[in-house]
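Notes for week 9. Today we move from apo structures to complexes. The key idea is that a small molecule is not decoration. When we ask for a structure prediction with zinc ion present, the ligand SMILES becomes part of the input, just like the chain. The input block below holds both the sequence and the ligand string. Read it once before you look at the output, and try to guess where the molecule might sit.
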Amino acid sequence: MTSYKELGLVNTKEMFEKAIKGGYAIPAYNFNNMEQMQAIIQACVETKSPVILQVSSGARKYANQTLLRYMAQGAVEYAKELGCEKPQIVLHLDHGDSFELCKSCIDMGFSSVMIDGSGLPYDENVALTKKVCDYAHSQENYVTVEGELGVLAGVEDEVSHEESHYTKPEEVKDFVSKTGVDSLAISIGTSHGRCKFKPEQCTRNADGVLVPPPLAFDVLEQIEKELPGFPIVLHGSSSVPVEYVKEIEQYGGKLADSVGIPEDQLRKAAKSAVCKINIDSDGRLAMTAAIRKVFATNPSEFDPRKYLGPARDELKKLYMHKNIEVLGSANHLD
Ligand SMILES: [Zn+2]
C-alpha cells in the first residue's frame, strides 16, 4: 500500500473548488511514455498550471501500470527540478471499468480514479460507483472519484460506443447523493477519438472543412441548476486541429473525415462548472505530425531522439496553448 501523498501527488478536491470559482478548467492529459510525460510537465510548469496525468486502460496495457505510477512520482520531482516549488499533480485512472481495477490503482498510489459505469443500467452504475467511492474515501488520504452519466460516442482505447446519449439532468442529483462521487463526467455532445462526428452530422465551411454541431449548453445549464457548484467533467474534448491533420496528410498520412470540438466552445464550457477537460487525440496528432515530418524530410534519420524530440517539443507547444488559450488554467498554481 502506497499513499499518493508519499509520492508528492494531490487529489482533485481543492483543485476543482478553485477551478469552479476561478472560471477555468484543469487539463487532463493522457500519457503512455516518457516524452509525453515530459511535455505535459514542461508545459504545465512553464504556464504555472495544475495538471491531471491520466492513465487509460490502453496505457496500462502498453506501458504497465506500475511503471506509469513511478513515472508520475518522477514527474513530481521533475517539475521541482524545472523550478516549480509546489507542483499540483494528480495521478488519475481514466475509465476504470471495475472495482478491482480502481482498488489496485488506489493501493498503488493513484490520487484519483474514474469508475465508468455509464454503459450499465442506472441502478448498477449507482451501486458500482458507490462501492468505489466508499473504498476511495475511507483511505487515510482521501482519494477522489469521478463517475459518469450519459454515453459519449466514439472510440477511446477500449471504450467504444456507436451513438451518444446526453446525460439526463433529472438523474444527476440522485446519482451524486446516492454514490458520494466527487465529480461527474457528462455527455453533452463531446466524443472520443479524432472523428467526433459523422460527416452527415456536420456542415462544411468554405474550405471544405467539417464544422460540427454545437455542444448542448442547455443540458449543461440544467445540470448546473440541479447541482450548483458541483465539479463537472468533459471527456473527448480534443479540437483535432486542421493544421495537424493537413501536415500528417501532407507527409503521407490518411486521416479522412477528422473533426473535433471547436476551442471556443471548450473555452465557454471551462468558464462554467466544467472543471476538468480531457484531451488525448490532439496530443496524438501533434506527435504524429512532428514524427512524419522528420521521416519525410530527412529519410536517413534513424536516431529515435531525433524524431521523438521534435514530437515532444510540438506536444509541449500544444499543451501550453491549451492551458493559456482554451482551459484558462495557466497562472493558477499557488
Ligand atoms: Zn473518456
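The pocket of zinc ion is lined by residues 95, 156, 192, 235-236, 278 (CB under 6 Å).
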